[in-house]
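Notebook, student rotation project (T.W.).
Task set for the rotation: take a protein with a known small-molecule partner, predict the structure of the complex, and write up what can be learned from the model alone. Partner molecule chosen: zinc ion. Sequence and SMILES entered below by T.W., checked by me.
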Amino acid sequence: MQTTAIFGSHVVVPGEAGPSLLRDRWVLLEGDRIAAITTGRPAADIVSDRPGRMILPGLMNLHNHCFSEAVARSHSEDGNGRKNNQSIVYTVLLPLTKTGLEILSPDERMAVARLGILQLLKGGATTVMEPFRAGLTEMFDAAAEMGLRFYGAPYLFSTADAQAGADGVVHYAGDDGAAALAEWDGLHARWDGHADGRIRLAMSPHATDTCGPDLLRACAARARALGVPITTHLAQSQREVDTIRARYDGRTPAEYLDWLGLLGPDLLAAHCIACSDSDLALMAARDVTVLNCPRVFARAGTTAAFGRFAGHGLRTLVGTDGYNMDLLGEVNAASMISKVVAGRADVATSPALLDAVTARAAEAIARPDLGRIAVGMKADLTVVDMGHPHLQPFHDPLRALVALANRANIDEVYVDGHRRIAAGQLTGGDEAGIVAAGAAAIQKIWDLPEARAAFAG
Ligand SMILES: [Zn+2]
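Predicted structure of the complex:
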């Protein structure tokens, strides 16, 4: 069994109330587990010994989209592609990613998947939950190949082609979703537990306005029979709230999910921007997890404040939603935006935010073996180089991490005891080749006439 010893000037361990710090410790990995935390240098096959680094539990990014974000990247900022400042999810992203999947070859889809996972690893993530169109099975292949711990979440829809009409409302013929569930079952049978258990599946009905009651009930029943987490997009916009109210007897999107039995500790609900305070109270009572992705909303001029959800007592995590897959940067944005919204500095604190992407995230997916540095835990670690000039000097390491650090400071990333990033670079892979192949594949989508029209002016 391979052993690795890593020296940390600071090591983040579980404390009484959130993360706590040890000075000058070695973390010893044996196989896929943390074997010891010592003051003396342990004997090991591989020794990583540099001063000035902080060892964190492997960061967990539980909401991301490698493919759809690659399609939108640098096209959708500054209001581009938005009609009347509305969301581009239904008008641009869903139709374009559907067509994009159809025109790319399996090799090209694999190239896009590799480029996304490269960014996730270099962003410090060891575990990622990624919803994607069920046809993009290359996400599983790339995650397995590159060694990420991966909760693939192939979408289920009550329609093969959800799009907003001219009125902005999502219309679809609708079906019971049986075909979508059969497709998901096939992927579960093929992939769940693959790559020494690093590959898992999550149940991922796309959103409240694209999934009818029959499909949502069936998803919940199937997920609970298998014990897999459920994730969905919830109350992404006021328009979604209006649509659900009109369709289902005045219910809000959260009430719609509660009516169908989905609100529970196994549900990870992304965004929740247009949830009312009473929706959030209901979700807190049901022990639902909120996935807060502040930067993708800030891009569109919309506030998504971590502190609002946490303030309702909700287990609130931070994810990147594909936009800029820098989890440390996202955590910084969550802190800043929450403070601005609250008009005070003592909300969304550094310990709370580090907890949100480690121990709390592990709790949300029922993984007591992840999210903490302690003997017996999975050997998933993110090592940050605190020696960079922009991090020096610092007095409080966690505040320095959240307020000042970003992905450029990620030094090493370990998943299951394997070093996937060393000195900030991918181990055992050609970064330049991955970037070139992924960008070329996305260019094919941007060259489509409908893409040029969608992103014009
Ligand atoms: Zn999303």
